[in-house]
């Protein structure tokens, strides 16, 4: 009888330890998920902040474009997560022009542009190297240099809206 009580107590301790470890692993994974979401878009400082807010330490961070991969440590547990930033919504005509430009240039350029205004209503800004390539393709893409005088600012060409 005493042996049964001791065995049950030992089993209870093992279950409690496993439950505690599972809870710590879940907290570490939550911290990693939050840090990855915050870090998407090359924001290491935001990933550090969110990991710490969840009681963890950021031990690894890698960002590429809108994708972030993180590793965190909480207590004795490590966890990893990845997150990708969704592109902002774009007006249909602008999305079509960006798609055409991407097809012509042989690469997806939507992630390389900065939208000006909601849905890109004020046009887009691109890198100088991409601006030079887009400028010569205006008649094919429907993206023209804006009248603002900034060489990296493009808008939909008047009269070429092909949806």
Layout of SSEs?
Layout: H1 2-39, H2 44-53, E1 57-64, E2 67-74, E3 77-84, H3 92-105, E4 114-115, E5 124-125, H4 128-135, H5 138-141, E6 143-145, E7 153-156
Antiparallel strand pairs: 1-2, 2-3, 4-5, 5-7, 6-7
Helix pairs in contact: 1-2
Describe the structure in your own words:
It is built from 5 helices and 7 strands, in the order ααβββαββααββ. It is of the alpha+beta class and 163 residues long. The chain folds into 2 domains: 83 residues, no CATH class; 65 residues, no CATH class. The strands form 2 sheets. Strands 4-5-7-6 form a 4-stranded antiparallel beta sheet. A 3-stranded antiparallel beta sheet has the order 1-2-3, with helices on one face. Strand 6 and strand 7 form a beta hairpin.
What is the CA-CA span between the terminal residues? 81 Å
Give the biggest beta sheet.
4 strands, antiparallel
Query: Can you count the beta strands?
Result: 7
Query: What is the overall silhouette?
Result: rod-shaped
Assign the structural class, choosing from mainly alpha, mainly beta, alpha/beta, alpha+beta, or little secondary structure. Answer: alpha+beta
Q: Rg, please? A: 25 Å
- Unreliable spans are none
Which range best describes the helical content: under 10%, 10-25%, 25-40%, 40-55%, 55-70% or over 70%?
40-55%
The strand order across the widest sheet is 4-5-7-6
Strand portion: 15-25%
Element order: H for helix, E for strand = HHEEEHEEHHEE
Mean pLDDT: 86
Number of domain modules: 2
Total count of helical runs of at least 4 residues: 5
């Amino acid at each position: 009888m005493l042996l049964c009580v001791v065995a049950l107590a030992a089993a209870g301790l093992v279950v409690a330890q496993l439950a505690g470890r599972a809870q710590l692993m879940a907290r570490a994974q939550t911290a990693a998920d939050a840090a990855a979401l915050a870090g998407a878009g090359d924001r290491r400082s935001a990933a550090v902040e969110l990991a710490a807010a969840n009681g963890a330490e950021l031990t690894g961070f890698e960002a590429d474009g809108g994708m972030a991969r993180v590793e965190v440590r909480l207590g004795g547990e490590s966890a990893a997560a990845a997150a990708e930033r969704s592109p902002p919504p774009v007006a249909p005509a602008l999305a079509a022009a960006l798609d055409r430009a991407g097809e012509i240039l042989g690469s997806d350029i939507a992630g390389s542009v900065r939208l000006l205004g909601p849905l890109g209503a004020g046009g887009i800004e691109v890198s100088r190297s991409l601006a030079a390539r887009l400028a010569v393709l205006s008649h094919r893409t429907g993206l023209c240099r804006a009248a603002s005088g900034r060489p990296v600012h493009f808008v939909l060409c008047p009269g070429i809206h092909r949806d």
